[in-house]
Amino acid sequence: MLKCVNIILKYIIRIMKRIGIIVGVNTDSLSEDSFPEWLEDIPDKLFNLSKEKYSKDEYGLASDIGIAYYVQKKLMKSKQYQVDILTPKDISLKKFNEYHKIFAFYEPFYHFINQKIKDKTSSQKYKEYCSIIQKYKGIYEPHLPLVKYVLNKTKYLKDLHKVGVPVLPTIFYNLKTGDPKKLLQQITNKCIGDWNTQIFITKPEMVGFSVGFKKWDIHKVQKNPKPFLKYLQSMKSYEYPRLLVQYFVKEFDQFYEIRTYWINGKYSHSIGTIIHQESLGTGGWETIDFAYPENEIVDEYEDWTEILDNSLIKDLKKMSQKIFPILPSKNNEKPLIVRFDFACCLNNKNICRDYFLNEIEYTPNLFPQYSKYVEPMEAVGKEIIRRIKL
Fold first, then answer.
1. Among 115, 167, 327, 386, which residue has the fewest nearby CB atoms (within 10 Å)?
2. What's the structural domain count of the chain?
């Protein structure tokens, strides 16, 4: 009898698909008083796997663990699937190969910027994680070629320009091999010539959260280049591959940057944000105003939110369709979730200034605290479940 039970157990284990979801971003959070009903019973042990510190003793639940818990909870009674929630400590080839599929919210980008992992440089950590993904026998999402492509902003900005998606003119500077003096001369020529601006910005490639963002006055830099040269050296020391230099869009904090969310290639919703310039690149929380498309307003926001015109959203949706074909895919499958961020305004002579594609994000902040038209953690969780069952 016992032998039969063991045989049955081994059979069940063999046919059961094991799924891993990696969390640990510790940001993009939701406060406990805003939890949807399905999230209210999350155990403290899970809550603590990914949380954002609000104050000394107050934390919010990061969206990655919210999504992972949704999937785990919905499939917990299934005899076909076992869903395990993993953390950065589980990133190894041996551990990965225990799973048929892995969905990572803490992925190579976070491994690159995470300074808490000792004895390895950011570049080493990133390459090591990518190597594990390449050798992994199962299915890993987000698809590694997509990760590498989006982190290479130089590449995708040039590709977007080729397919007719408006982007800001950009100087791409190789931090490892570039000549700082030549870069400064190039910036001077652009500011005085093509860009017709006194103010320009710099931001390193391969990072987010406005890390390394800096605004400069070309006249001040010309008079005293030492701070600029010191900044270049600092960016190089963090092992960022390239620096992006663009003219300063003076209207950037006057018009909403519109973040359009796409799940499995289908439009989900949009959120407009204005990040106050004084909070950019400070290393702390950014100060943000929010807005929503007029057909995505919910009662809770009706009295105070700004409204985005539906015709603008419609135009941005059309523009977005030009982006999907340039994104790397596996078997023509669309990304689990992707966000296209559009900002205003291009430096042109049009009476109505034009929006441009500012960034592509493959594991984007969902702003769950400020998203009510679509509950984004649940929406992403449902798509993960659909993919698990494929």
1. 115
2. 3
